[in-house]
Amino acid sequence: MLRSLVGSEMCIRDRSFIEALGNLLTDDIGLRVAVLAVDPSSARTGGSILGDKTRMPRLSVNPMAFVRPSPSRGESGGIVRHTFETIGLVEAGGFDVVIVETVGVGQGELDAEGMVDLFVLLHPPGSGDELQGIKRGVMEMADVVLVTKCDGHLQKAARHAVSDLRRALQLHRPKHNFWKPKVVGHTTQATGEEMADNKGESTQAAWDLMRQFQQASKDSGSWSARRRQQLHAWLLHELRCGATDRLERHLAREGGVEAVMPKLVDGTTSPREVVEEMLDGFCRQI
Question: For residues 33 and 48, what is the distance between their CA atoms, to the nearest angstrom?
Fold first, then answer.
């Protein structure tokens, strides 16, 4: 079983790769695929469109696939609270590959990376390229970087982006001692003679890279350690969420934040002092 995270550092979601990969795995290889897509929620209303099934029309009706969109509900890190549990459920249900699609993660917002085996970063052409690759954060966490839309009038720009990012990633310290991040182009549009020219940029080539990573991880003995780290990340994530829930219930009983706002407005105390008092009161009731 393989757990893979697919995300973009610029909140640009490209489901064409996920659908192409899912159809390849189900139709050509015979694997069962689960896609757990996290959809951004409105900061004002809390609503989400949850249109991932509409944007993946073939995969969403494939009997060998399961596509589940979930609202982010304002949670950061690119995931929602129960993503960990959902991964365990679909694996127990017999799915061979789990693809987690984030809401589009930014630098420092990679909680999702801690719960998967492999992180595939989608990078659109003409978006900073080499400078973006040098920036620390999400780029240095990627195991495979796919430059999308490597076809048509964007093909030249995409291939330039591949070269730029390869040079930029040489400045990063490798995330694993058994693997150096790979940067390749990807297209879902090439057919016929054009496909022969784009063989290294096909969905099959991307899947081959993902399998190479999986095999290298197992050969190095890091696979089991990574799964242990995922359980550790799950535990800490649940601990943070549970503590936050209990603190919010405690504050609601004590009158909430509004009860201390007069002191803040008058300037007789600072937010830090108020927080310390709240936390002390909460801890005394545990």
Answer: 24
Handedness of CA 74, 147, 121, 206 (dihedral sign): positive
Residue whose entry in the numeric block shows the structure tokens 């969905």: 203
- Asked if pLDDT for residue 170 goes beyond 50, the answer is yes
**Amino acid 276: pLDDT:** 92
Instruction: Determine what percent of the chain falls in helix, strand and coil, rounding each to the nearest 5.
Output: 50, 15, 35
Instruction: Indicate yes or no: pTM above 0.90.
Output: no
Classify the phi-psi angles of 247: left when phi > 0, otherwise alpha if psi is within -120 to 50, otherwise beta: alpha
Residue 150: which of 188, 116, 176, 199 has the closest Cα?
188
Q: How far apart are CA 241 and CA 249, in angstroms?
A: 13
Give alpha helix (H) positions in 129-260: 130-134, 138-141, 155-169, 193-197, 203-220, 222-253
* Dihedral sign from CA coordinates of 9, 12, 16, 22: positive
Could you give the 3-state DSSP secondary structure of residue 56? coil
Phi, psi angles (nearest 5°) of residue 255 = 105, 0
